[in-house]
Amino acid sequence: MKKSIFIIAALLAATFVNAQITLEHTFEGTLRVPHEIIDVNSRTLGDIYAYEDNGTLVCIDPLTYNESARIAIPDMKYYDMMAKNIYSTDGLIGFITSDGSYGSGHAYVYNQNGIMLADLGVCFYICLIKISSGYKLVVYRENDESRRTTSIYSLPGNGETTAVSTPSSPKRLARKIARDGQVLVQTGNNTYTLTGTEVK
C-alpha cells in the first residue's frame, strides 16, 4: 500500500513540475523588454505548422508534413503563441487563448490535451521573450484607473524536449552453473556452492 501511495505521489509531483508557469515579478508601468520578442501576432513558435479546421487546431510537423496533433480549441475568442516545450517540458503543444477580443479578455495557457496550465487574468498585451536563461512570458495589464502593470512569468521549457533517463540495470557479476549434478555460483574469480563454500 505504501509503495502505491509513493508511486502516485511521484507521478503527481512530476505532473506539476512539467506544467509550472510561475509569476516572478510585477512592475508598475509598461516595462520595455529585450528585442527578441514573440508577440500574439505570431501564431506558432518552434517546429509547428498549424491551421484551424472547424474549431480544431491541426498541427503539422514541419519536417515530415505529417499531422502531429489535433487540438480542440476551448470556447474562447482567439488563440495564439502555440509552442512546444516552452509552457511545459512534456513534449505537448501549448497555446494562449482568451475569452474576449484581443486586448480586452481574460487570458489562459492551455496544453493540447485541454488542460489549463496558467490563468493569466485580464490583460491587454502578451508576449514571449527569449533571454539567456530561456523564455519568459510578459503580460501587460491595465486596471480601472488606467494604471498599467507588467508581469513577468517564468516558463519551464526552453524549446527542447527533456530527456527521460532510464537507469540501466547493473551487469551481473555472478552466474549459476551446473557441475557434477550440483548447482554452483560462479563469479569473475571464484566458484561457490549455494551455501557459500568456495569450490577449488
Question: How is this structure best described in words?
Answer:
This protein is mainly beta. Helix content is 8%, strand content 47%. It has one helix and 17 strands. The strands form four sheets. It has a five-stranded antiparallel beta sheet with strand order 1-13-12-11-2, with no helix packed on it. Strands 3-7-8-9-10 form a five-stranded mixed beta sheet, with no helix packed on it. Strands 14-15-16-17 form a four-stranded antiparallel beta sheet, with no helix packed on it. It is elongated. The two termini are 46 Å apart. Residues 6-19 and 162-170 have low confidence and may be disordered.
What topology does this entry show?
Elements: H1 2-18, E1 22-28, E2 37-39, E3 44-45, E4 49-53, E5 56-60, E6 67-72, E7 78-84, E8 93-98, E9 106-111, E10 116-122, E11 125-131, E12 134-142, E13 148-154, E14 174-179, E15 182-187, E16 191-193, E17 198-199
Parallel strand pairs: 3-7
Antiparallel strand pairs: 1-13, 2-11, 4-5, 5-6, 7-8, 8-9, 9-10, 11-12, 12-13, 14-15, 15-16, 16-17
Strand order of the largest sheet: 1-13-12-11-2
- Segments where pLDDT lies below 50 for 5+ residues? 6-19, 162-170
Number of helices: 1
Question: Kindly state the mean pLDDT as a whole number?
Answer: 76
Q: Approximately what portion of the residues adopt beta-strand conformation?
A: over 45%
**Rg from Cα:** 26 Å
Largest sheet: 5 strands, antiparallel
User: Fraction of residues in helices?
Assistant: under 10%
Number of strands: 17
